[in-house]
Amino acid sequence: MICSTNNPAIKRYNYRAAVVMTLYVVFLLLAVWVFKLHPPTGVAAYALAVLPSLPIVGMLVVAGLYLAEEKDEFIRNTQVQAMLGGIGGTLAVTSVWGFLENFVHVPHMDLYLVFPLFWVFVGVSMFVVKLRYR
Amino acid sequence: MKNRLRVLRAERNWSQADLAERLEVSRQSVNAIETGKYDPSLPLAFKLARLFETAIEDIFTDEN
């Protein structure tokens, strides 16, 4: 959804998305670095393992805030359609892949890939939605 | 749903961008409504009616 615009809701979305994605990179590098050099134990290990996922959750909140703040109902409608496409595509691929893993032992898909997969499908869906309203 | 937006716009010599600015929506929104690909909400339909100083039924007509 990130793009240059005069729409205040998209401007706020772009800013918030940049903040949480920066936090994601920082937290991820920190977690990788600490686990490599000084592996923590107990609660600290759990806390550090969870740390990079917090901005991911934050990104979902940022997307939700955008939908709540977008005043242009048509644009909001297209974004919701794209996100529904993203959810549907992600559920379809992960469900099919899960059964493939169980029965024919295809390579394991790490769960952290689900989030970028969702945004890939959102992008594809947005392309299709824009074609529909062109 | 069919509508007379293009005609009403032409009568006032407004572009889609002009109408979008007056409605405080994007030009894509005006285009989607005008081409009948998107039906506006009731509040937006009322806003259109007020802007063109007419009734909603004079802008939008049920195809059935």
Gist?
The complex is a heterodimer of chains A (134) and B (64). Chain A has 134 residues and is mostly helical.
Please write the string of helix (H) and strand (E) elements of chain B.
EHHHHHE
Helix content of chain A: over 70%
CATH architecture field of chain B: Orthogonal Bundle
Q: Classify the helix fraction of chain B into a percent range.
A: 55-70%
Number of structurally distinct domains of chain B: 1
**DSSP strand count of chain A:** 0
The number of helical segments of chain A is 5
The quaternary organization reads as heterodimer
E-strand count of chain B? 2
Give the class of chain A from helix and strand content and strand pairing: mainly alpha
Write down the overall mean pLDDT of chain B: 93
Report the sheet-strand fraction of chain A: under 5%
Low-confidence residue ranges of chain B: none
Largest sheet of chain A: none
Could you state the order of secondary-structure elements of chain A as H and E?
HHHHH
Report the uncertain regions of chain A.
Answer: none
